[in-house]
Automatic annotation (TrEMBL):
<dbReference type="InterPro" id="IPR002509">
    <property type="entry name" value="NODB_dom"/>
</dbReference>
<feature type="domain" description="NodB homology">
    <location>
        <begin position="96"/>
        <end position="275"/>
    </location>
</feature>
<dbReference type="InterPro" id="IPR011330">
    <property type="entry name" value="Glyco_hydro/deAcase_b/a-brl"/>
</dbReference>
<dbReference type="InterPro" id="IPR050248">
    <property type="entry name" value="Polysacc_deacetylase_ArnD"/>
</dbReference>
<protein>
    <recommendedName>
        <fullName>NodB homology domain-containing protein</fullName>
    </recommendedName>
</protein>
<feature type="region of interest" description="Disordered">
    <location>
        <begin position="21"/>
        <end position="45"/>
    </location>
</feature>
<dbReference type="Pfam" id="PF01522">
    <property type="entry name" value="Polysacc_deac_1"/>
</dbReference>
<feature type="compositionally biased region" description="Low complexity">
    <location>
        <begin position="24"/>
        <end position="45"/>
    </location>
</feature>
């Protein structure tokens, strides 16, 4: 089905995914609707997403992705202002959509900004302060396309290996920096490697620093294909996909845009559209 090269699934490239994201529904968003008023600040911006034209896809030698449906008015995940934060790796939906998240921020390839500008594929960026501090500006045009910037610690530790106080400083310091640099407080947190996601210490640290959910993933993009958490190797509606800002030194010579093009091809082959994660999450009222 794929070109021969894709058989080589590079399992060593798992800097952010080695311990997996899995364990999805264990602590799903609270069922109680938390905001009857539903004046979510994100609701206003959620009509149909802009679509790239055929020429844009052709420029990048890609087949067009299906058009994503308009963002739902009733968000399937509703976050509360206080208390335990939910942990999830997928979004409840029947639509044939997936969500793309890109982590860390190491590779800062101008061609990738051009690619997202052309293709208008929504992504969520989980950024790590020490990895992006050499060039905060790189991510601003990506943000200006409507993409959200979320919290991924200061220096990418294994959270379960450090003290609760250190966990808190990892989340709070990245939160403060991202808020200052990008003008908006992250709503979501992702622990490096998915590590510690279900621990009380991590949940407490996240609560104390501002994010209102912990986001894991179902699939992890490598070089040519994804690592799937399920044996059938198929995307499912609502899956969250992990990718990284990586360049040739980490991608066996491939560029960020080549890797991302292959990710989009794998999504397109399975007939899925890419939707914006934040359009499916209701931020706490107020
Ligand atoms: Zn990471």
């Amino acid at each position: 089905m794929y070109a021969a090269g894709t058989a080589v699934l590079i399992s060593t490239l798992t800097a952010c995914s080695s311990s997996g994201g899995g364990t999805s529904a264990a602590s799903q968003a609270p069922a109680a609707p938390s905001a009857q008023a539903s004046a979510s600040p994100q609701a206003a911006a959620s009509s149909a997403a802009p679509q790239a034209d055929a020429a844009a896809w052709a420029k990048w030698k890609l087949k067009p992705l299906p058009e994503a449906p308009a963002a739902p008015a009733d968000k399937p995940i509703k976050l509360t202002a206080k208390g335990q934060v939910p942990v999830f790796s997928e979004v409840p939906t029947k639509d044939k959509i997936v969500f793309v998240t890109i982590d860390d921020g190491a590779e800062k390839d101008p061609k990738f900004v051009e690619m997202l500008t052309d293709l208008k594929v929504p992504v969520t960026m989980f950024l790590t302060k020490d990895i992006i501090k050499s060039d905060y500006g790189y991510f601003k045009p990506l943000q200006a396309l409507g993409n959200h910037i979320q919290n991924h610690t200061v220096d990418h530790p294994q959270m379960s290996k450090i003290s609760p106080a250190k966990q808190k400083s990892e989340v709070c310091e990245d939160q403060a920096t991202l808020t200052e640099q990008y003008g908006k407080a992250p709503l979501l947190f992702r622990p490096p490697f998915g590590d510690g996601a279900h621990t009380a210490a991590l949940n407490t640290a996240v609560q104390e620093c501002g994010p209102r959910a912990v986001v894991l993933w179902q699939e992890s993009m490598q070089v040519h294909d994804m690592q799937y958490q399920t044996g059938d190797k198929k995307l499912k509606p609502g899956d969250i996909i992990l990718a990284h800002f990586r360049g040739p030194s980490e991608l066996h010579g491939e560029t960020m845009t080549e890797m991302f093009g292959e990710l989009l091809s794998r999504i397109q082959e399975q007939g899925f559209a890419v939707a914006r994660l934040e359009d499916y999450i209701q931020a706490p009222a107020g």
